Structures are given as C-alpha cells and as structure tokens.
Amino acid sequence: MLEIDRLSVAYGPVRALTEVSFEARDGSITAVLGANGAGKTTLLRTITGLVPAKEGSIRYDGKEIAGLAPEEVVRRGISHVPEGRGVITELTVEENIRLGALWRRRQPDYQEAIDRAFALFPPLESRRKQSAATLSGGERQMLAIARALAAKPDLLLLDEPSLGLAPLVTAELMRIIRELARTDGLTVLLVEQNARSALSIADVAIVLNLGRVVASDKAAALASEDELRHRYLGF
Amino acid sequence: MGRFVDLTLNGFTYGVIYAAVALGLVLIWRATRIVNFAQGALATLTTYIAVSLLDRSVNYWLAFAGALFAGLVIGALTERVFIRPLYGKPDLNPIVVSIGLLILVESIAGAIWGSGDRGFEPAFSQIGISVGKTHLEFSHFDVFVLASVLVLMVGILVLFRWTNLGLRMRASAFAPEVARLLGVRVGRILTTGWALATFAGALAGLLVAPKVLLSPNMMDPILVYGFAAAVLGGLDSPLGALVGGIVTGLGISYVGGYMGSSMETVGAAVLLIVVLSIRPEGIFSRPSARRV
Amino acid sequence: MKLPRWLRLPTQPLLRHLLLAVAGGLVLYVITLSVSQYDNLELAEIGWYAIAIAGLSVLTGVNGQISLGHGAFMAVGAYSAGLMMEHFDLPLIVPVLVAVGAAAVIGGLVGLPATRLKGPYLAGVTLALAFAVQDLPNKFSSLFNGDQGIIVNPPTPPGTVPAERWLAWITLFGAVVGMVILANFLRSRFGRSLRAVRDDEIAASAAGLNPARLRVLTFAVSAAAAGLAGGLFALWSGIVSPDSFSLFLSIQLLAGMVIGGSGSLIGAWWGALALVYIPEWTQNVSGHFNLSAGVKANMQNAVFGLLIIVIMMLAPSGIQGWLRSLWSAIGRLARRSKGDSDQAVAPLTSTPSPERISP
Known about the structure:
The complex is a heterotrimer. By secondary structure, chain A is of the alpha/beta class. In chain A, helix 3 packs parallel to helix 6. Chain A is globular, with a radius of gyration of 17 Å. Chain A has helices at about 40-45, 70-75, 95-100, 110-120, 120-125, 135-150, 165-185, 195-200, 220-225, 225-235, and strands at about 1-10, 15-25, 30-35, 55-60, 65, 80, 155-160, 185-190, 205-210, 210-220. Chain B is mainly α. Chain B is built from eleven helices and two strands. In chain B, helix 5 (about 140-160) packs across helix 6, helix 5 runs antiparallel to helix 8 and helix 9 packs across helix 10. In chain B, strands 1-2 form a two-stranded antiparallel ribbon. In chain C, helix 2 (about 35-65) runs parallel beside helix 7 (about 165-185), helix 3 packs across helix 10 (about 210-235) and helix 11 packs parallel to helix 14. Chains in contact: A-B, B-C.
C-alpha cells in the first residue's frame, strides 16, 4: 500500500504540491487527474525521488521512502514510466528491457521477467534487436511499460501513457493496464490528462488543481459528478 | 619513399597512443560532459609509479600492471573527490578544476621524482626492424604499442556492447535520469567511467614514456594531440577516438617529418582550429541534436 | 550599502571609471615613490599581470568562455613590441600599440571558430595554441632569434627618476589605461549586447544581435588586453624568448583570474598580487623549512594548482566575490530590513546575473 500524507513540494519559491494526501491500495488502479500544471507529474517524480519532498511523508509497505534516491526506490518495487516515455533510443529494444530488469539480475526469475515483458507486447518481440529509435509512438509506450514491468514491480507509476497515441492504441493500452492489475495484483498510479479513458479503468481517482487535491472518490462516482467533470476534467 | 614509409609507421604508432588518450577523454565526456585536461598529468603520475616499482626491481610486467591498476584507482578517486562536487555547476568550473589538477599533479610528481628527464625502459627492443633489404625505423616495441592499444580498444568495445556494466554505462551516458529510474546507480557508473578513462591514459603514458623521455610534463603535448584526436572523432565515440588518433598521428608525423619538429604543435593547433571551424561536431560523428 | 550622495561615485560610466582610475593611479604613484627599487620592479610585474588577467576575465565574464592559452596572446604582443623596438627607434607608445593590435588580430582569427564553440572546445584550442606559440620562434629562427630570444633595451627614464620606478610607472599606467578602456567597453552598448547574448543567446538573436560577431569581438578584445600585457612584459623583462610563454604562464593567468574573481576587473588586481607574491612566499617557506630542491622548485605551481581547485570548489567567485558579499553583508547589517540585493555573481558560479562584470 502507498500512503501519501500531507506531501508538499516546491521548486524554489514556487509551490508545486500542497498537502497532498491519499492512499493507493494493493491491486487497485488510482487515476490522478487534473489540468496541465496541476502537479500530477511532480507527484510521481516526488514519489520516485527525482524531486525532493519539502514536507510530508511517502510510505510504501509501511516504510518511509521520501528522501530515497530514484535508484533505491525502484529496489523497493516501484517502477516509474516517465512522461514522454523515456525510451533510450540509442539502445536496442532488448537492451532497454534488459536494463529495466538489470538490478535484479541475481534473482532466479531474472530471465523469466524479461521474457514475460516481451510476451505481453508481441510487437516488441519481433523487433528485439532493432534500435528503439525505429519504434512508433505506440510501440515506444509499450516498450517503456514492458521495461518497467521487467523490474517486476508491485507498484507501477504511469505518467500520461496515452499522450500522442491514437484512440484505438490508447484503448488497447488501458485494457492491458487493467489486465495487469486484475491478474497480477499490480498496483497502478495512473496520471492522465485524458480523464475519460483513465476513469474507464480506474478504481479510484483523485483530482489535482494547482497542487491541491480537490476531489477524491471512487472512479465511477467522480465520473458522474457533472460539475467537477466540467471544471477540472474537461469532458 | 623510405622516409615516407617510416613517417607513416611512426604516425600510426603515435596515432594509437593519441587514440588511447582520446579514448580516455571520450569516456569521461560521454559520462559527465567534462573534458578532463588533467588526464595527461594523471598518466604521468601512473608512469612514475611504474618507474618507482621498476627501481625497486619489481618484475617489468608487474610494474606495468601496477601502473594500469593505479590508473583505475586514481581515476575513481579524482571523480569522487574533485569532480563530484561540481556536477550541476556551470561547465567552465570542471574545466578550471581539471587545469588546477594538471598543474598540482605535475608539480607533485616533480617534487617527488625531480623535474628532469629520465629514461623509461621499453618492454621490447626499440631498434628498427629490417624487412628484406629495407631497414625500417619501426621496431618491436612499436608492434607492442599497436597491439596493446588494439587490445584496449577491443576490450572497451566488448565492455560497452556485450556486458551489463557496458549497458549501464551507455544508459547513464545517454539518459541519466531514466537510467536512475531503472535502478542504475549512476554515481557509481560515473566513477567507473573516470577509472576506465584514467586506465586508458595510464596505458598511453606507459607506451609513450620509452619513446620520449619521462618528465613531469611529458604528457602535456600528448594531451593536446589526444584532444585533437578526440575532437576529430566527435568527442563522443570510442571508435571515432581511434580513427581520430590515427589521423592526428599521421598528420603530426608528416608535419614534423617534412616541416621540422617545431611545427608539430603548430600543426595540431591549426588542425583543431580548422576542424572546429568547418565541422564542430567532428569529422566522424553524425551531428547530434543532443549537443546543445 | 548606500553611501551619502556626495560620497557616491558618478553614475556616468566614463566619468566614474576615470575617477576610479585617477584615484587608483594616485595611490599607486605614492606607493612607487615610497618603496624600494626591487619593490618597484614587482609593482611593474603586478601591472602587466593585472591587465593580462583582466583580458582573460572579460572573456570568461561576458562570453562565458575560457582560454587556457592566454599566454600565447601575451607572446604575440611581446614579440611584436620586441621586434618593433629592435628594428625601429620609435616612441614607446608605438610598439605597445602594435602589440595590442597584433594580439587583437590573432585573437580575432583564433576566435573565429570560438563563435560556435562551447567552453570545453575553446579551452582545448587555446591549450593547443599555448604550445604552438612556444615552438614558432624556433621555426622562424632568423626573425625571432630562436631560443635566445630578442633583447629589449629598457626605456630610458627622464631626469633623475630611477629606472625601476620609471618601469613601474610605465606598466602601471598602461595597465590602468587598459582597464579604463575595458571597463568602458563592458559598459558600452556593445557590452550590454554581449551580456544579453551570454544570458540568452536565442532571445538576443531574436532582438537583432549577432552573437557570432559579438563573440569574435570579445575574443579579440580579450586577446588585445593580453597583447598589451605582453608589450609591457617585454619592457619589464628586457628579453622576449619562448621560455617566458610556457603553458605555465597561461595557467598562472587562469589561477590569477580564479583567485581574484572571474569577471571582475578589480579582481584582476588581486589576482596579479597573488601571482607576484605567492611565488615569493613559497620561496621563503621552502627556504625556512629547508625543503629539498625538488620540492622548492615545484611548490609554487602546487600552491597555484591547489588554490585553483579549492577556490573553484568552495568560493568560485574569488576574492572580489568574497569582498562583495562581505560588503553587502555589512550593508544588510547597516540597513537591516531594506531589500536591496546588490550581490554580484561571478560567471564561474551558478546563476547568471546581468551585472556580473562591474569594474
């Protein structure tokens, strides 16, 4: 379980997050919604230690992880697929995935995790040896997720996976994410601007506005609140 | 004709030594976007360490290996102590610090081992080989120089291409933040990069010392040629360093041979200015959008 | 800290710089009268060091670039002046001006690729130049007289002025005049354009400035200052030979800039003081402790290297930066609450500030 308690973050004098609190239960999908600049990306980057927290706590499985370096956070079972996907185009598809699993190379299921990442996204399998630069936008998103999964995380942080993807590809991606949560018990924190498709698979959702949580409820309940939808979610 | 052959072979031999220096610069540039102007001075230091071991009648190859190992350690220490505090600072700061390190290390070497020249025994004979009736200036030692730099280059290539450490190094160079998110301990990788780079420099020092005389500033011009080689190769590519090194070596050898040795440094300066005026991204590298 | 109005310097740059120069010149004049002849020679040395460091500082301060071979431009100046004096009998000002011009031209040529180059590349090019300039006199031995170098006759002082004091006057006068010109250059429309380019090249080009041309120009100005230093050096040392322009001269100039505070013209004087007195101090120390000849010979460079490293890591804006923060701390104490931030940040620190260079 991820527990975030009164988390505040500032870039110099500019406040990015103010007293954000919420929980993400194991095996659930939590959508983090809100407009551009609401602090969604900052939230994920703070959880993985790319941005220092100013106040508040981030606990995972009961242990404080605020202040840990990103390379240590991943070792606690948290994988972060950054905004813009973060595929390393100078490496091949396979190298990208291997890199994701590399820190647990001494685990007996190291190779299995890599194979499973490929199995989830068959289009990647056939392009193993190709440079990641040759992939399309959708394929890059798949690669980024496959690479994060190769680390066998318990908690997956996804930053705008639908960005720049065709609606059909987005729908397929959402289906896979839901599948992972259902079958593997993976906990997902899904940051999205595309609120409609995020709400379609999320269990709960929180809405950020100017760095504060303005709403937090079951996904279905939020989707039915017209006023909130119009004001913050734009549909 | 004989002279041309001699100059060409000489250019090749020196060229691979410049390539080893260039490789060191490239490794550090890739990892940390810093040009380590102290690389030559550090190589002088490791060469003096070899000499000290030899003076204590340590086995030649043991002393050789000792100096290379010292390169690894000194490189790692340099990164940890002097360079790490400068990450995120303006890029002039590490340049200045590396120059400070250059003069500091050279004067320490001068204080310990004296500022004068001294010989450094070659591993193999430096007497030229005769092929049929023609006598070349190219010696068994030169063969050794070519072979050892080749081994170094192949080793680095294998490391980068086929090992997990190499994969981590490449990932850290291309996308440090993503690499960290994937669990790569980038800090350690950077230290490793500096260690390897100084190792390459140490090899260059051991190879060049028997050909010139060993003195605290022995590596100064070699560093300039190595820098020219690295720039020629694009500063980003180990293979470019090799090609750049050989081109620089040949160029300097011809200039020195036909125009007098005092023109060698002038040639290097002109080469750098011309190359950078025409193609700042180097001759052998594709222009990359990343170098802003 | 705000001084009473009548104590403040005029805001008009030229007037302000001239006033400062006259005041500084007066102080220096009094000092030259009251110290020994040996000290006068050291004052002269401070003069040419200061203007050379100032040139380097301008390059770093407004171009954000660094030269590891500024000694090479000093060599250009020194050789031009030396040759002029060897072959023609002209008033002193002519060879010195020729030194400035020659260095500016060579600087402009070297600076051409610099227009597109980021720090490390230019650093490497200038480093190569530092070596090349040592070898050229041997190649063109008939002109430059190889390793022996060119003998320069010391300037003849008027009346009863001792030669050393006369030399101090000449170099210090040259250095102060050079500083005033540099200060005005930085405060001119040109200087403002240069800083605009350094701080945001894209915005500056959009505003119609030509970054490439401005960069070459700064490089030439910076080299010209080194050329002036070279010309004064020729008079001071009495001989111009390749030995004087080793890599270590360039590194010393860099050390002087770092110690004094990069980007600051006043800092250049602190740097020059350090370059003259640190070697003397290390000589005394090694003599006092009976250190071995090897240590004695290398101590001064070791101290410079160590100072460069330590200052860059702990206080990258050098002595002048430290004085400025001291001054503004006093100001804050005096005023307590008024929020007037007057800190000047040297370019080797982190944040660019529009007022980085202030003479």
